[in-house]
Design goal:
Number of strands of chain A: 8
Distance between the termini of chain A: 29 Å
Shape of chain A: globular
Strand content of chain A: 15-25%
Order of helices and strands of chain A: HEHEHEEHEEHHEHHHE
Helix content of chain A: 40-55%
CATH architecture of chain A: 3-Layer(aba) Sandwich
Number of helices of chain A: 9
Largest interface: A-B, 30 and 30 residues
CATH superfamily of chain A: Vaccinia Virus protein VP39
Oligomer: homodimer
Structural class of chain A: alpha/beta
Chain lengths: 271, 271
């Protein structure tokens, strides 16, 4: 995981569970349309604890997936998860996306999910990844955008805690609102036939799985996880932070609604 | 059109053209999934100049559509549009949604698009519409949400002009951010099997029709149309308003992106 330290989402066990829940709820939303041919070589950049790796490996059982991350503890968790699922098409490797250990043009496809948001120079990294692809190879990128949450009831307190995470991520060199920039980033890196589409997570009382899996366990949990860092950084006091988290939880009640927009993009390295 | 006076979007010819462009670009996005059976009686509430009426009438050629509005000039334009399209399945009627001239349970289906956003009491109106349906009949509602625009480059000036429109609409008794509330509004009005889904207009360089038809001619044009009212209301000065419009236009250039989320919901009057 080419995450700039300190990684705002953290690396602890609760975080690992949150990412598992997120993966289950979101897998179809995010992975739909992504399958790789038999024997194609696929690089997953920043696999973390393997939440997306599992989906990739299941959906492309005959592809050869190489998943890299810079955190050995994350790789160990990812390896365990893939083993427990009985999958044998993933090779894990400790590597930094800024210093890739592969020869140029080593991969038919590259997959990168929730990683560009953490990089100080996503354009530069996309340029490096471009060079790792064979001519005609594809890159798929998925990112969120923390400017996208739309919820009812609206709440200034909730907006402030979301802004805490955006600001912490900015100070760590990232951009929590990168989703909207995905199209120009891919185009400027030299990819052609760039196609980006929004994919929206949407929860209301008629979709209790999304209320629980996304509003509560994914988005609110993620924002809540930066509480100590936000307070330490002077971005919020404890009481106002907790008010904001309660306001997000309120959107998960019977008459609440919550939307979040992801962006999924693909581009081709020209032949 | 049960629009509270003053109708913030205005009624002039430029507005009529804007609504035509919007209808062409958005028709498939908004109307996909909405067709009505032969001989079913369909009430369109607040048809305005007929932008949505045309799509409804084309997509359900054998349904019997009754389209109401409170503005005679809008009805005349809508009638002309339907006649020019050679359609014969629409009857227009001058009526106020707050004092409907029909017997209870007169309709098999009700369609309401970009109307609830203008009403001081959308919940009350939905309750009235519920009563107009036959048991088992459906209501379909489509609304935007002015909290939803996500664009690149981000711009405080652009946010301010959007906020002008939101504030003018609020002062006129409406809610430009009603989309996110559609699910609880329909559920609380007594509809069952309520289903609401986001539908996103998304423009980038790879989708020039959306850049032109939506970013420029629909969203930016709509916001720009409140310029005089915003200045008169003291919400902006001319220079800062024009800066904001230019910032929106900037998102329609080669490396810009623009997203807007509509919500489409349906509910059933229980038998």
């Amino acid at each position: 995981m080419q995450i700039v330290s300190p990684y705002v989402h953290g690396y602890d066990e609760a975080e690992g569970l949150r990412l598992q829940d997120q993966a289950a709820t979101l897998e179809e939303l995010l992975h739909c349309g992504t399958t790789y041919q038999s024997r194609s070589r696929v690089l997953e950049v920043g696999c973390g604890v393997g939440a997306q790796t599992l989906a990739l490996a299941r959906r492309s059982p005959d592809a050869q997936i190489i998943a890299i991350d810079i955190a050995e503890t994350s790789l160990a968790a990812a390896r365990r998860r893939i083993n427990e699922a009985g999958l044998h098409n993933v090779e894990f490797r400790l590597a930094d996306v800024h210093a890739l250990p592969f020869a140029l043009s080593s991969f038919d496809h590259i997959f990168v999910c929730f990683v560009l948001e953490h990089l100080p120079d996503p354009a530069g990294v996309l340029g490096q990844l471009w060079g790792q692809l064979t001519p005609g190879g594809t890159l798929t990128a998925i990112e969120g955008d923390h400017g996208s949450p739309l919820f009812h009831p609206e709440s200034a307190a909730a907006r402030r805690v979301i802004a805490c995470q955006v600001e912490l991520q900015r100070r760590a060199g990232g951009d929590a609102c990168i989703g909207r920039r995905l199209h120009p980033l891919l185009a400027q890196a030299g990819f052609i036939d760039v196609s980006v589409a929004p994919r929206m997570a949407y929860a209301n009382a008629s979709r209790p799985d999304w209320v629980e899996g996304f509003t509560r366990r994914t988005f609110t949990a993620m924002v809540a996880s930066v509480r100590d860092d936000a307070i330490a950084a002077g971005l919020a006091d404890a009481a106002s932070f907790d008010d904001g988290v309660r306001a997000l939880e309120r959107t998960a009640t019977l008459d609440g609604t919550f939307c979040y927009t992801f962006f999924k993009g693909t581009g081709i390295r020209p032949a």
